[in-house]
Amino acid sequence: MLLFEYIVDIFCVKNNTKYPIIFCFQYNCLMEFLYLAVLGIVTGGASALFGIGGGMIIVPSMLYSHYFVSSLDFSTHEAIGISVIQMIFSSVFGTIINLFKKKNLNIEDALFLGMGGIIGASCSGIVLDIITPDHLTLLFLIVSCITFYKFLRGSTKNTHHINISNKQKNKVLVIIGSLTGVFAVSLGIGGGVLLTPLLMYYLGFDTKKIVPLSLFFIMCAAIAGTISLIHHSLITNTVLEAGLVLGVFSLFGVIIGQRLIDIISLQYHKIILLVLYAISIIATFNKVLVYYDIY
């Protein structure tokens, strides 16, 4: 019980203010903690199951958090910062499992993809300094729609084999990693949702092969992105605390997701991911309408 109280005391999110433990069990604070904890478990499960950072779930969930818990209210920049912090936990844990337990990670491919991710994610702080929250949300929506379309097209075709040399493949991995890193981390989506259609289309990888590669990429990009965001003073105490709650509880979700991926067929795996894309796009589209006073 004391350990639980200590965790809640540390992670209680109250607009840059940390309250004593007795106040942390007030209704609003407890609801904040539970909301972030459940979201962390769901995000961690999706991360392990689909090889995504979780931003497609976290960013819209943070933007709509005040509808579920009135005391929670995050801007787009804050939602992105929270998402990037959470990614570190789930991606590192998932990569460790893939590397040492499941042994399904191609280390050579992962290193070149991760190298590109570090290069691209290092620029994320600059991007967030330049783009306003409303434009950033619109950009998030556009990227999500393009990714959904590419994945939808790819999911209707059989995985194809592409004949290229190992050297050429490594170059493609670095380029894809760099481009994905700069945009994905800036949008708080890690990169898994962008990597999947790109690796399917240009290298002929299937979705289950992409999952461990994607988690390794997200690990590299999230760490580099967090450093960049801190350097540009875009991560506040509130963002850090919410990200830590999500991150810690995402580890439980990763364990669940790692078990589910072994029993779900490739066809259902694609269908579930498509549904996840669609829900995120609808929620983000509604938020864009609000930002631009259209709705």
List its salient traits.
295 residues, disordered N terminus, 14 helices, mainly alpha
What does this structure look like?
This protein has 295 residues and is mostly helical. 79% of the residues lie in helices and 0% in strands. The chain contains 14 helices and no strands. The longest helix is centred in the first third of the chain and has 27 residues. The protein is globular, with a radius of gyration of 18 Å. The N terminus is likely disordered.
Give the CA-CA distance, first to last residue: 46 Å
* Gross morphology: globular
Biggest sheet: strands, sense, closure? none
Mean pLDDT: 81
Number of helices: 14
Order of helices and strands: HHHHHHHHHHHHHH
Instruction: Name the poorly predicted regions.
Output: 1-6, 13-25
**Percent strand:** under 5%
- As a percent range, the share of helical residues equals over 70%
Q: What's the total number of strands?
A: 0
Could you tell me the radius of gyration in angstroms?
18 Å
Structural class: mainly alpha
In short:
With 295 residues, the chain is mainly α. It is built from 14 helices and no strands.
